[in-house]
Design goal:
CATH architecture of the largest domain: Beta Barrel
Order of helices and strands: EEEEEHEHEEEEEE
Strand order of the largest sheet: 1-2-5-4-3-6
Mean pLDDT: 93
Number of strands: 12
Number of helices: 2
CATH class of the largest domain: Mainly Beta
Largest sheet: 6 strands, antiparallel, barrel
CATH topology of the largest domain: Elongation Factor Tu (Ef-tu), domain 3
Helix content: under 10%
CATH superfamily of the largest domain: RimM
Structural class: mainly beta
Strand content: 35-45%
Distance between the termini: 45 Å
Length: about 180
Amino acid sequence: MTKEECFYLGTIVSKFSYKGEVLAKLDTDTPQDYINLESVFVLQGTKLVPFFIENAQLQKSSLLRIRFEDIESESDADLLLKKELYLPLSFLPELKGTQFYYHEVIGFKVREKSGNVIGVLQAVNDQTPQALFEIIDDKERIILVPVHDDFISKVDRSKSELTLNLPDGLLDVYQS
């Protein structure tokens, strides 16, 4: 399994007990969906290594307390601290309508509601306080557009197109 075939689930942030349990901070709005996992992939160096789960339960709503098979001590758990957790993309529920996963719309043609093509969605930058679409236009310029529900008019998966209803003047800063 490669990282490209998976999605980021979260990071192991601390040890929980002397028996090797760990706490993982999950990057999801619905952490309860991940209580009954049989296994996860742990990023070790550049490789994803499967770890099997004996038990998992929510701890303080957004943390998942995990007991892995063969992790039986604090020193075993130390080796997992700050490691990222991944699951196969197939574990993601299918979204419909204007809902989408960021990885799903990369490469989509982006249009304004009027039909004008803005460009091609190159990436979604979610490392900023407001996630941003990074769109490459026909002049090879990067156009940044906030990812906001009010701006997303249509997601056409069959045509690989994203239609945006942008406020007047938002794209004017890129005109020259």
